[in-house]
Write a structure and sequence with these properties.
single chain; Alpha-Beta Plaits; 2 domains; two-stranded antiparallel ribbon; 32% helix; elongated; disordered C terminus
Length: 276
Amino acid sequence: MDILIAFLVVGAIGLAAGILIAVVSRFFGVEEDQRVKAVRACLPGVNCGACGYKGCDDYAAAVAEGNAKPNLCVPGAEATAQELGALLGIEVEPPKDVVAYVHCNGNCEATSKKAEYAGISTCSAAAMLYGGPNACSHGCMGFGDCAAACPAGAICMKDGIAHVDTSRCLGCGLCETICPKHIISMVPQKTIAAVMCNSKDKGADARKACKNACIGCMKCEKTCPNGAIAVKNNLAQIDYAKCTGCGACVAGCPTGCLKKIFFPSLSESFEDDKVN
């Protein structure tokens, strides 16, 4: 009998608690904003943070409330921007198509180690110890912090340096942010030429540390017919607003650190990968 009474008491308490929760939810619950739900359904659900918000949910709320532009979703690209524009009934400028590019060609054959590193296997940790174990203190260390941060699995380590599969790159910029050497940057999808070096050392020192280094000779700057290249801090830099992809700089580079490149088209849609 005592056991039965105990069961009845516990059951009564549970029933009362359930009724109380239902009443509180009914009268004090916050109704979900259908506009936020509709905006969220348009987003790819990558939660990369490239829009400047913590994830797709926060960005959806900001867009629905009019506090964020609807063209900030990099993975969704123009398709998502236009979908949001149609949903909100406004004109939307298409986002810029960008991809990650590794400005380093200091592979195992081009550079060497100045020391053996036996610490934590991350770029951020290795960089704090005399700039890392490589002879070039400006180059990729190959521990893969960028690969670990990439939500699309678009980065791998090969021959000692990072490589980006631009057909999978979302353009979110997380790899650019996490790289302690700042050798990764987001470049326009239509980029035709790029500098595969990040060294700021003088020519002789840069060449000694890496065979593929930019030596700051300014030949590219002098040969570019559009004034799209300037050597600053011993390193060639390209102004993509002026670059026409003529290839004059590539042909004139004595170390081959300037490369002509081609990026495959980004995926047309992320519909199959959406997370609701």
